[in-house]
Amino acid sequence: MLENFKERYTSRGKHIFVPNAECDRRGDTLLNFAAEIELPHYFFHYRNGGHVAALHEHRTNRYFFRIDLKNFFYSISRNRVAHMLRQLGFHSAREFAAWSTVRNPYEGPTYVLPIGFKQSPLLASLALWRSAIASSIEEAIDRGVIVSVYFDDLIGSATDERELRITYQGILEACTQANLAANPAKLIEPAEAIVAFNCHLTHGQTSVTNERMQKFVDEARSQQAEASFIAYCARVQRNNL
Length: 241
Known about the structure:
Elements: E1 5-11, E2 14-19, H1 21-34, H2 50-57, E3 63-68, H3 78-87, H4 93-99, E4 102-103, E5 111-112, H5 120-129, H6 132-142, E6 146-150, E7 153-158, H7 161-178, E8 188-191, E9 193-196, E10 199-202, E11 205-208, H8 210-218, H9 223-237
Antiparallel strand pairs: 1-2, 3-7, 3-8, 4-5, 6-7, 9-10, 10-11
Helix pairs in contact: 3-4, 6-7
């Protein structure tokens, strides 16, 4: 039996897998292979600025939505990984898909990408890129809607509320088609203000929520951590209108 992790544990209700040395080695091979692949510009987890840059991308608009993908990594099956790698021309796609997946701790496909393997974010992103969700996003962008993706968080915005609702429904339908379920508890329909990444987003304004700031204050922190958090809050608000 293939053994690709040395331990597993739960943290904040999530299953975490610690890869063994051989799994890590194969993860490096996959990361090197993908180094030359140009992922879509709307994948902000591979862009400078990360989720803060994603938030700032939307500030010029007036209406916003948020879609969160439920159990994102654990929804990407071994077969999907193998098929996607084969399409991209990777050698030994089936073998590396096996080394990159674990038995699913949730309902769904039997073997899936886990949280904890270095290749999981990349493989999940590639799978999303090759799915109906990406096609729906690109159609929306062609119509003038802004859509950003940060791992499993999708934010959309537009100046036209009707156009944004069309995009919102279109992406939800694409989620069903792609077998990547949206999390109903975290869906935010088009509105003039939303919360994403513990930040407020509205026309011309982004700011860290009071709840997130209070949580930081309530716990003992080092001076370095305090300085970093203050700088982060300032970065979120930078260039607000």
